[in-house]
Amino acid sequence: MNKPFLADRIDGKGYAADLVEKLTDEVAEIKSKTGLTPGLAVILVGEDPASGVYVGAKHRQTLAIGMESFVHRLPFDTTQTELMTLLEELNAAPEVNGILVQLPLPAHLDTNAVINAIDPNKDVDGFHILNAGRLATGQDALVPCTPLGCLMMLKDRLGSLAGLHAVVVGKSNIVGKPMAQLLMAENCTVTVAHSKTKDVPALCRTADILVVAVGRPELVKGDWIKPGAVVIDVGINRIDRDGRSRIVGDVAFDEAGHASAITPVPGGVGPMTIACLLANTVTAFKRQHHIVTNQAAVAV
Ligand code: NAP
């Protein structure tokens, strides 16, 4: 007999809708207080279809909350110098408060050099080396959007995270490492696992909070999850099953019914990522203009 599925589904779509509504109000307040409109510039190099879809979604959602959106679509053969020149212009443009370069870049471009050429105060992806350093040392940083969204959902679900054991599987610069830093800042005891870690299942079984950001479909099985744990599944993997193409996470969702809560894929972490990008743009604007709003949308 199948075990009952008792875990709550963490509704990332609902969290994102709530955050977007608050940001819409905050942007309206900013406009009436300053007469200015926060603006986000997004640069896309090349024609990667998935990146094109993400950039389109960012553009629409930026406009929908009342901000300005500046999309720069550059040809695949754009040179490093051309890209750096555009970044210099955007860094200096007062109407641009946030800058995002859609990754991955074509292989002939130096991604680290490009990211580090963004003004760190406009780096709304939070990938600039200064923002990574600020986050690691507990200073005000622009924080990468995906882990920021994960943290918001965890805090809403659990309240204080202090003293809990968090296991983060994956140590990428964009998800795993900043996620671990954020959880440490919340006084969790944090363990980071990766491809060379011995006995990842045994480690996962000790986690009160399990965040998985690997990119392997359904890697984490039900018996890797401690009963009552909160599971955040960051993975997005396209697979073929029963003759149909579908998206699954890094966790075998159907086996996780004994967790206390889990994010579904799709509909969990993904929707929060764009909402947090908008939130970071509002945060960047407020820091650049030294203003405080009455209805701040982001509490973490
Ligand atoms: P990444 O840069 O490829 O990093 C993957 C990490 O997983 C690496 O640290 C790697 O270890 C580790 N790993 C690989 N195989 C493993 C295994 N068998 N056991 C334990 N660890 C293993 O990936 P990423 O950019 O962090 O993305 C991870 C996933 O999240 C992808 O599916 C991506 O599409 C998704 N994602 C989703 C969102 C969203 O908005 N929902 C945003 C970003 C990413 P090593 O370091 O040792 O190689």
Structure description:
- There is one protein chain.
- This protein is an alpha/beta fold and 300 residues long.
- It folds into two domains: 35-123, Leucine Dehydrogenase, chain A, domain 1 (Rossmann fold, 3-Layer(aba) Sandwich); 144-271, Rossmann fold, CATH 3.40.50.720.
- 39% of the residues lie in helices and 17% in strands.
- The strands form three sheets. The chain has a six-stranded parallel sheet with strand order 1-11-8-7-5-6. A three-stranded parallel sheet has the order 3-2-4, sandwiched between helices. A two-stranded antiparallel ribbon has the order 9-10.
- Helix 7 links the parallel strand 5 and strand 6 (189-193).
- The longest helix is centred in the first third of the chain and has 23 residues, at 12-34.
- It starts with 7 loop residues before the first strand and ends in an 11-residue tail after the last helix.
- The model has no long low-confidence stretch (mean pLDDT 96).
- Residues 146, 169-172, 174-176, 193-197, 200, 213-216, 219, 234-237, 269-270, 273 line the site of NADP nicotinamide-adenine-dinucleotide phosphate.
- It comes from Pseudomonas laurylsulfativorans.
- GO terms for molecular function: methenyltetrahydrofolate cyclohydrolase activity; methylenetetrahydrofolate dehydrogenase (NADP+) activity.
- Belongs to the tetrahydrofolate dehydrogenase/cyclohydrolase family.
- Residues 10-125 form the Tetrahydrofolate dehydrogenase/cyclohydrolase catalytic domain.
